[in-house]
Amino acid sequence: MKLITFTQNDNTRIGLLADGGIIDLSQCASALPTEMIAFLSAGAAAMETARTCTGQNAHFALSDVRLEPPVLRPGKILAIGLNYRAHAEESGAEIPKVPLVFTKQNTSINGPYDPVHWSEDSQMLDYEGELGVVIGKRCRRVPLEHATDVIAGFAVINDVSVRDWQLRGTPPQFTMGKSWDTHCPMGPAIVTPDEVDPHTLQLKTWVNGELRQDTNTNDLIFNCYELIAFLSTAFTLEPGDVIPTGTPSGVGMARKPPSRLAVGDTVKVEIEGIGTIENEIVEEPADATIY
Q: Which positions of the chain have pLDDT values less than 70?
């Protein structure tokens, strides 16, 4: 299944992406929660009910709705740095012995086709195409061999990075460089684990149509299951938590000379079997200031 969150006629709810259209779960399974975290929290029974809707005709065309991030406000976004061998090498870093974990604040979440904000406060805006893991059940101390049991599915993520803020100071300020509003586009759907093997997928990133990243997830240093076992040793993972698993080689900062995203640029990230997200870089609007 491809689970989505969408808005139609100012009403936001969950559904299924199927054959280019939208199956509205509120119409074919009205007893289900209409918000993604509540749906995932309802467990296997809710998932099986949703699965019975997969053969139905679409209620809406894609053009009739707005696709939102599948999880509107994750409880936690637990991102992983330097988790592809080739990316660690292009960064001049040693291969990590344990996962390098940092957080993106949940206000950074953004829709799969929504604009990403550029700010004059930043001189080095960068892209990072990534495979995202979405947690499906509350869990802690998950054994490696049972990690698949707690995964709701996988999504495409762009871990947008403000490099000059990230690299300001010693050690680097990952949270400040990674958590700006709109800097975590996600989607277009949560693809359930029965549809893909997360460790054999081709990941590609384009900037203005130029291919910048082209790597298979088999280059991950720590795979999705190892990350879940590692993270859940320390704290409880909850439905809707998101784990961006790291980016492959080809980021803008590593190019010679370094390449910066600018207003008007478009970044597209595609992962085999999961889908594509595409976001335009726009100047941060005046109404982004709140005080």
A: none
The per-residue pLDDT for range 211-239, each reduced to its tens digit, is: 999 999 999 999 999 999 999 999 999 99
Determine the Cα–Cα distance for residues 125 and 261; give it in Å rounded to an integer. 5
**Separation in Å, CA 261 to CA 160, 162, 277:** 10, 10, 16
b or e along 31-43 (b: 16 or more beta carbons within 10 Å of the residue's beta carbon)?
A: ebbbbbbebbbbe
- Quick one: pLDDT at residue 95? 87
C-alpha span between 166 and 124 (Å, rounded): 10
Per-residue pLDDT tens over the stretch 180-203: 999 999 999 999 999 999 999 999
Q: Is the entire prediction scored with pTM above 0.90?
A: yes
Q: Which CATH superfamily includes the segment(s) 78-288?
A: Fumarylacetoacetase-like, C-terminal domain (3.90.850.10)
112 SS3 class: coil
CB proximity list for 259: less than 8 A, separation 6 or greater:
207, 252, 253
Domain parsing of the chain, residue ranges: 2-68, 78-288
Instruction: Provide the token pair at 220.
Output: 């991950």
- Which residues neighbour 279 within 8 Å (Cβ) at sequence distance 6 or greater? 110, 112, 113, 114, 115, 116, 158, 185, 266, 267
